[in-house]
Amino acid sequence: MRISEGALLVVLVMLIPFVVELRTALSWFGVELSILETGVIGSAAALAIIVWAVWSPNGDANGESSRAG
């Protein structure tokens, strides 16, 4: 993993208010998002963060770091 499990949890928890405030900020510019659309955006962002965190930094499929050894 690129970051620790605890740090990943903190990032995912902080994503919730970020998505809610993004919805609020977009409404100032006339962009109205439904609860469903907000959930989809939040889920996509969470999935992208999880994929980034789990993906090996050097691209190895087996997940082992080239620094080990």
Summary, kept brief:
The chain is an all-alpha fold and 69 residues long. The protein is 64% helix and 0% strand. It has helices spanning 5-28, 35-54.
Summarize the structure in words.
This protein is an all-alpha fold. It has one domain. 64% of the residues lie in helices and 0% in strands. It contains 2 helices and no strands. The chain has helices spanning 5-28, 35-54. α1 packs antiparallel against α2 (35-54). The longest helix is centred in the N-terminal third of the chain and has 24 residues, at 5-28. It starts with a helix and ends in a 15-residue tail after the last helix.
**Largest sheet entry:** none
- Secondary structure class reads mainly alpha
Output the helix-strand order.
HH
Strand portion: under 5%
Radius of gyration based on Cα positions? 16 Å
Q: What spatial form do the alpha-carbon principal axes imply?
A: elongated
Question: Average pLDDT across residues?
Answer: 87
Low-confidence stretches: none
Number of DSSP-assigned strands: 0
> How far is the first residue's CA from the last residue's CA?
17 Å
How many helix segments? 2
Determine the fraction of residues in helical runs and give it as a percent range. Answer: 55-70%
Number of individual domains: 1
Characteristic terms for this protein:
about 70 residues, mainly alpha
Task: Outline the fold blueprint.
Blueprint: H1 5-28, H2 35-54
Helix pairs in contact: 1-2
